[in-house]
Amino acid sequence: MASRRLLNRIYYFTVEDEGILGEAFPKFEQQSFCLAYKVLGTDDVFVTSAETKEAMDRHDVPYNLLAEEEAGKIALLHTPQSKEELADHEDALKSLILAHRSIAAACVGVNGDADLGIALSAGAQDFTYFTAPAGHTFIFRLFTDRKEAVQFMKKRTGSDKKSVEWAESIPLASAKELQSYH
User: Fold this and answer.
1) Is residue 74 a contact partner of residue 103, using CB atoms and an 8 Å limit?
2) 2 in a structural domain
3) Residues 49, 87: one domain?
């Protein structure tokens, strides 16, 4: 497990040939959890966690750094199960959120849950997923705006105080406030 950083960063980068990543990542140390997500709507921009960037640097993977973002600006709400299974993958999840040009995400359940159909009924474009090493695939609702998150949490949780407070405390008001590549 990687040591915790007080100020985690998430990085945007490009590569000349994205096949480089597919070739390099399997060669990294076995204890590394490395990933890079392509940013939605781009041809060659990726977003990754500091852990992956450090592994890329150790293995001399050629890339062009475009920008960086503070991981603390990206909000993430877990269920008890997702918190337990994904605790070591917070920055990976936040990278996934940024790749969707979002500022926050809330876990709405596990793939196969009966009530996911209701959540997804308005369309799947606002959702993403992350599969834990234990094998569960967690579904997350993405948010590009704090007001949207508050409305969703009020509706989804019946105005559960903790959920609504989480949404109201999202550090950024909208994706327009992201300082990096967007």
Assistant:
1) yes
2) no
3) no
